[in-house]
């Protein structure tokens, strides 16, 4: 499987006891290497932050941008899906 990387924005949390941190995952473009992702983020960080902030209706302040491998992004989705499913079923 081809290695893919995604730019992921984390946001500052007011509630420091919360485990889950709000994220914004930039689906496109995606990158074939960490270096490609990192270079893109260096050039476009303000544009990425703007899109991420807009996605939360300007209610959250961005903290950082990370370049994560596809597997890490999939793990985030799996964790969130399982947590939401557990909350709905009461498990």
Folded structure, characterized:
The protein has 91 residues and is α+β, with helices and mostly antiparallel strands. The protein has one domain (5-89). The protein is 46% helix and 26% strand. A three-stranded antiparallel β-sheet has the order 2-1-3. The chain is globular, with a radius of gyration of 14 Å.
What's the short story on this structure?
The chain has 91 residues and is α+β, with helices and mostly antiparallel strands. 46% of the residues lie in helices and 26% in strands.
Give the overall shape, derived from the CA principal axes: globular
The percent range for helix content is 40-55%
Tell me the major beta sheet. Answer: 3 strands, antiparallel
- Tell me the quaternary state: single chain
Q: Runs with pLDDT <50, length 5+? A: none
The mean pLDDT is 85
- The topology string of helices and strands comes to EEHEH
Structural class comes to alpha+beta
Number of strands: 3
The total number of structural domains is: 1
DSSP helical segment count: 2
Proportion of beta-strand residues: 25-35%
- Based on CA atoms alone, the radius of gyration comes out at 14 Å
Tell me the distance between the termini: 34 Å
Strand order of the largest sheet: 2-1-3
Secondary structure blueprint with pairings:
Layout: E1 5-11, E2 23-31, H1 34-55, E3 62-69, H2 70-89
Antiparallel strand pairs: 1-2, 1-3
């Amino acid at each position: 499987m081809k290695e893919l990387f995604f730019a992921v924005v984390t946001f500052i949390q007011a509630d420091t006891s919360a485990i889950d941190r709000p994220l914004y995952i930039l689906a496109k473009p995606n990158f074939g290497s960490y270096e490609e992702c990192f270079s893109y983020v260096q050039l476009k960080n303000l544009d990425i932050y703007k899109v991420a902030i807009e996605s939360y209706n300007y209610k959250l302040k961005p903290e950082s941008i990370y370049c994560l491998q596809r597997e890490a992004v999939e793990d985030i989705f799996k964790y969130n899906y399982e947590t939401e499913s557990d909350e709905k079923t009461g498990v």
